[in-house]
Design a protein that fits this description.
The complex is a heterodimer. Chain A has six helices and five strands; from the N terminus they run H-H-H-E-H-E-H-E-H-E-E. Chain A is an alpha/beta fold. Chain A has a domain at 40-166: 3-Layer(aba) Sandwich (Rossmann fold), CATH 3.40.50. The chains are: A alpha/beta, B mainly alpha.
Chain lengths: 216, 123
C-alpha cells in the first residue's frame, strides 16, 4: 500500500497509524476518498439463481448488509457500483449481464458469487451454461460456495472494501478506468450458430494451456 | 429592524441553487483532474436495461386519455370551485358572478360536447 520509494518527508501508513493512536488524524485525499466510497458500495439489484436468495438474506435484518454500507440495492445500473453475479449465468443471459455491466459507471466492481458464477459449478457440463462470468467481465472477488452463506458474501464485500481502500487515484498503478488512454468498453456477446460470439473476451480470459507430461 | 417575513425564502432559494451548483462544480473538477470520461455505445444507450433498447428517447406520448381529463375537469374541478362560490354567494359583487357564470358555461359546453359525442355512454 505504501509508495514504492517513500522519502523521509512523506509519512508512511505506519506513521499515520502511530499518529492516530496519539489522537492526530493525518490523511490524504486519496485515503479519504477511498474511505468514503469503500463504505458506500451500492450493489445492483440483480439476482440470477439460488445465490440471489442468499444475497437477499444478506440484505435482510438478520445478516444486515447495511452494517457495511451496501444496503442500497439500486434498480438501475447507472446508479450502481457493484454487480453481484449471484447464480448460474446461462448463455441466454450472458449478453444481458455484460450489457448491464457496461452500463454501470466507473468505478465499478464485480463479485462472482458461488460456484456457477465462477466456473459454471454443478452445471458446468450443460450446453447452455457459461463456464464462468470472468470470460466477459473482470471479476474482483470470487466467493466460493454452492450457494455461499450470507456471511461469506459479507466477507467477500469486506475483501472488496479492502481492495477499494488500496486503490490509487493517480500514477501507473491506478485502476484502468483512471488511466487516460484505456477503454472501458466490454464487448457484448451475441448468439451465434453454436455458441456465444465471441465465446470469451480474450483480453480478460484465456483457456488454460494443458501440458501433458511424457510417459504419463 | 426586523427582516422581511419572507426573507427566508430568498435564503432558501439561494441555498437551493448554490448547493447543487457546488456539487456539480466538484464533480467537474474531479473529472478534470482524476477521472477521464469513459463513454461507450452501450453505456450511453437510451435506456439502461439488459435488453438492447430500440428507437429514440424522443417518443410521442399518445394523448388517448384526453377525454378523461376533460370529463374530470368538468365534474371534479367544477365542484372544487363551486363550493367556495356557494359559500360566499350572498356577498359577491356582480363581476364575480359574471366571471363564475362564464366559467360554468365553458365547462357546461364541454359537457354538452362530450354528451353529444356519446362519450358518456358506458361501453
Amino acid at each position: 500500500m505504501s509508495d514504492p520509494a517513500p522519502t523521509p518527508d512523506t509519512p508512511t501508513d505506519a506513521d499515520r497509524d502511530e499518529l492516530r493512536r496519539q489522537g492526530i488524524l493525518l490523511t490524504s485525499m486519496e485515503e479519504l476518498y477511498n474511505w468514503g466510497r469503500s463504505r458506500s458500495v451500492w450493489p445492483l439489484n440483480f439476482g440470477l439463481a439460488c445465490c440471489a436468495i442468499e444475497m437477499m438474506a444478506a440484505s435482510m435484518a438478520r445478516f444486515d448488509i447495511a452494517r457495511f454500507g451496501s444496503e442500497v440495492f439500486r434498480p438501475s445500473p447507472r446508479q450502481a457500483d457493484l454487480i453481484i453475479i449471484s447464480g448460474t449465468v446461462t448463455k441466454k443471459m450472458a449478453p444481458q449481464v455484460v450489457r448491464l455491466w457496461n452500463q454501470m459507471p466507473e468505478p465499478k466492481y464485480c463479485i462472482a458469487m458461488g460456484a456457477c458464477a465462477i466456473s459454471g459449478g454443478p452445471f458446468k457440463q450443460g450446453y447452455n451454461v457459461l463456464k464462468g462470468i470472468d470470460r466477459y467481465i473482470p471479476v474482483d472477488i470470487y466467493i466460493p460456495g454452492c450457494p455461499p452463506r450470507p456471511e461469506a458474501l459479507l466477507h467477500g464485500l469486506m475483501q472488496l472494501q479492502e481492495k477499494i481502500r488500496g486503490q490509487r487515484l493517480t500514477g501507473p498503478t491506478a485502476p484502468p478506468h483512471l488511466q487516460k488512454d484505456t477503454t472501458c468498453d466490454y464487448p457484448v456477446p451475441a448468439f451465434g450458430a453454436h455458441d456465444l460470439e465471441p465465446p470469451k473476451n480474450p483480453a480478460l480470459w484465456q483457456p488454460p494451456v494443458l501440458v501433458r507430461k511424457e510417459g504419463a | 429592524m426586523n427582516p422581511h417575513p419572507y426573507a427566508f425564502l430568498a435564503l432558501f432559494a439561494a441555498v437551493a441553487v448554490a448547493f447543487p451548483l457546488a456539487l456539480l462544480a466538484l464533480a467537474q473538477l474531479w473529472f478534470r483532474f482524476f477521472q477521464p470520461a469513459k463513454p461507450g455505445a452501450v453505456k450511453n444507450d437510451v435506456y439502461e436495461c439488459g435488453i438492447e433498447s430500440t428507437g429514440d428517447s424522443w417518443i410521442q406520448f399518445k394523448a388517448h386519455y384526453y377525454l378523461y381529463a376533460i370529463l374530470f375537469l368538468i365534474f371534479d374541478v367544477e365542484v372544487l370551485f363551486l363550493l367556495p362560490f356557494a359559500v360566499a354567494f350572498s356577498g359577491l359583487p356582480v363581476g364575480a358572478l359574471v366571471a363564475m357564470s362564464v366559467f360554468i358555461l365553458l365547462l357546461a359546453e364541454g359537457l354538452v360536447w362530450a354528451w353529444h359525442r356519446g362519450h358518456l355512454e358506458w361501453r
